[in-house]
Design a protein that fits this description.
Layout lengths: L27 H13 L3 H14 L5 H12 L3 H14 L4 H13 L3 H14 L4 H13 L3 H14 L4 H13 L3 H14 L4 H13 L4 H17 L4 H16 L9
Length: 260
């Protein structure tokens, strides 16, 4: 399913400020900074308080209703969430993130075509909206449109080179298109960035073995994965699959000469 959350960067708990003890008008930028922090920390009660403050102090801003839409969504009230995001769009429809939020709501209401249309509209307004690119990438991957999925995953990777979900999505999309070397290159890059991730390394071995017919390379990688995955206490199902592939290559005598 498509992503259903926003990425607002790293924050600290002190950034999620309580503005309730003062009656003075606060700058919109300060309120939004605090709201983003509360969103990241999942402090819904404080987020609601700040959003109401934006509605009161900055009634013409789109952001009060936007944050209240996220609050309503978090509480499972999709009807209210949709109404609030529509209110934001009526105030100012130029922000792509508003269309993205509307699309997310529509998706949860099973209105998939309208959801995709709104997310695409959001990207037209803001091509750098990473979450919207990720959303559409996952939708197209689900629909087996791997060309489109690759395009959107690539946009995410350009913005977030270490995003594991995007890297895996891009690699698997290329794999489904028959671009085995391209998939291998992406998985290797992902592994170098996250050397603790044995799933990425395993997929390298799998591609070498099953698609490039390079059993020697696959065997060396599987051996490496077996050792490191055991050290990191990977689930038994994963360890069993690695072991099965090693044993199969040994039975077929498809192992490097130096290991025989």
């Amino acid at each position: 399913a498509p992503v259903v959350s926003f990425e607002v960067g790293s924050v600290s708990s002190s950034s999620c400020k309580d503005f309730s003890g003062t009656s003075k008008k606060h700058e919109l930028s300060a309120l939004m900074l605090a709201a983003n922090s509360c969103l990241k920390l999942k402090n819904i009660e404080r987020l609601e308080q700040i959003a109401n403050g934006i509605m009161k102090d900055h009634p013409f801003s789109v952001w009060g209703a936007f944050y209240l839409s996220l609050v309503a969504e978090a509480r499972g009230n999709l009807v209210l969430a949709q109404w609030l995001i529509d209110l934001s769009l009526k105030k100012n429809s130029s922000y792509g993130i508003l269309n993205f939020q509307k699309g997310r709501m529509l998706w949860q209401e099973k209105k998939h075509s309208l959801a995709v249309k709104n997310v695409q509209e959001g990207l037209k307004k803001d091509p750098g909206l990473v979450e919207a690119n990720m959303f559409l990438a996952q939708v197209h991957f689900r629909d087996q449109d791997y060309d489109k999925a690759s395009e959107y995953f690539y946009q995410v990777v350009k913005a977030r080179p270490k995003d594991k979900t995007a890297l895996q999505g891009l690699a698997e999309s290329r794999l489904q298109k028959g671009d085995h070397l391209g998939a291998l290159e992406i998985y290797h890059r992902a592994y170098l960035q996250s050397p603790e991730n044995m799933e990425f390394r395993f997929r390298e071995g799998f591609i070498y073995e099953t698609m490039l017919n390079q059993a020697d390379n696959a065997y060396v990688i599987y051996q490496e994965v077996r050792i490191n995955a055991k050290r990191r206490a990977y689930p038994s199902q994963f360890l069993d699959e690695v072991e099965r592939r090693i044993v199969n290559l040994e039975k077929q005598n498809r192992i490097p000469a130096m290991t025989k």
